[in-house]
Write a structure and sequence with these properties.
Elements (H helix, E strand, L loop, with lengths): L30 H7 L8 E3 L6 H6 L3 E6 L2 H12 L4 H18 L1 H14 L2 H10 L26 H18 L3 E6 L2 H6 L6 E4 L16 H12 L4 E10 L5 H6 L4 E8 L11 E8 L6 H9 L15 H14 L5 H14 L17
Parallel strand pairs: 1-2, 1-4, 2-3, 4-5
Antiparallel strand pairs: 5-7, 6-7
Helix pairs in contact: 1-11, 3-6, 4-7, 5-6, 12-13
Length: about 375
């Protein structure tokens, strides 16, 4: 059991940075929420059987960690950064050179790199494809081949964008320095079998009904097996999972994760190949009893859908925008909870990351 709120967690993470890898379901917006919601003394290892992008790991910064994934390319990239095989300078040179080739040759060069990567692998090629493919999607076929099409942006690797990625790699180098982090390519159940009493396991599996072709197939049977294995753990644990969106609810949570302490957080997803993957999503952090923080219960009240951050950038279709504006118009004539949520959604749709600029005022002509 955890020993009070004086250990490693809970803690706020007000300034979250994104690591070099982009993938579906990245938890950038949830890191602070996770950090505040969990209570753990930090005496063991932080364990992640589903590393993904690594954003939770790199922002919480435990001293010891066992982090794993079945996606060997993600693990190899972080192993190479950790060992110094891949450095910020090497990344800059590779992306600058190959970005220039992409600008000259467009999609033909992208597909050449993709073929080379599927034949030979390579952390630098993986990083290149991850940042130039369609919509930042990470997807592999049944044979393990990366099969995401070109993102139709031949000028993708501008000097500023390359510098951004290089800075992310440099930040990863700095964060890993002096810490006992072990990266392994292995199945989730092998990782969980290695957990000790003082460890804490953060579970971020592929979402049921979404992104099931991320690297390996993830079935209902796999999800149920994970829930059973989590109950058998001798240490603390927490599961990240989608709870509901405007189309449906996740029945798996109620069937297999009852008895855990649930904290919820609502936000928008931006990464995905279709509009239905860019809607408001409510996520749940299901925490093993005794490892939840009181700070998390207070945070839950702040993160209801009516308090969605205004600075949100999404690309609604004309039909979606019409429905949102219609609901918001009705809401302004009432004060129901649904009405307030419609107003919040309308605000989110109509506010972009860049401030609106006024057109220049015409100069008056002298008579």
């Amino acid at each position: 059991m955890a020993d009070g709120e004086s250990g490693f967690l809970p803690k706020p993470v007000p300034h979250v940075w994104a690591p070099p890898v982009k993938c579906q379901g990245i938890k950038t917006k949830l890191v602070d929420f996770i950090g505040r919601s969990v209570m753990w003394n930090g005496n063991g290892r932080w364990v992640e059987p589903f590393l993904g992008s690594g954003v939770v790991l790199f922002n919480l910064c435990p001293e010891r960690a066992l982090v794993c994934d079945t996606n060997a390319h993600i693990i190899k990239l972080y192993q190479d950064i950790q060992s110094g095989t891949v450095t910020p300078r090497i990344v800059r040179d590779f992306l600058t050179e190959n970005g220039a080739r992409l600008a000259r040759h467009g999609d033909s060069f992208y597909y050449d790199v993709r073929r080379q990567f599927n034949d030979e692998g390579g952390s630098l090629r993986f990083l290149f494809l991850n940042r130039s493919c369609f919509n930042g999607v990470m997807r592999f076929n049944s044979k393990g081949g990366f099969n995401v099409p070109f993102g139709h942006k031949p000028m993708r690797f501008s000097r500023a964008y390359v510098t951004k990625i290089v800075n992310q790699v440099a930040r990863a180098v700095e964060t890993m320095a002096g810490r006992d982090w072990v990266f392994k390519t292995q199945a989730w159940n092998t990782t969980m079998d290695a957990c000790a009493e003082n460890d804490f396991v953060y579970l971020d599996p592929p979402y049921i009904g979404r992104h099931t072709d991320y690297y390996n197939q993830w079935s209902d049977a796999d999800a149920e097996a994970l829930a059973r294995a989590a109950r058998d753990l001798r240490c603390g644990a927490a599961l990240s999972m989608w709870k509901e969106n405007k189309y449906r609810e996740n029945g798996h949570l109620g069937e297999h994760w009852t008895g855990y302490v649930w904290r919820t957080f609502s936000h928008f997803y931006h990464v995905g190949p279709t509009e239905d993957l860019r809607n408001q999503m409510t996520e749940v952090l299901a925490i093993k009893p005794g490892y939840e923080s009181t700070a998390g219960s207070e945070l839950r009240q702040k993160d209801t859908p009516s308090r969605i951050p205004r600075r949100v950038s999404i690309s609604p279709s004309p039909a979606q925008l019409g429905f949102v504006l219609r609901d918001a118009s009705r809401a302004r004539r009432g004060s129901s909870v649904a009405g307030r949520r419609a107003l919040a959604t309308a605000d989110a749709v109509m506010v972009s990351d860049k401030p609106a600029t006024k057109p220049p005022r015409p100069r008056s002509r002298k008579s």
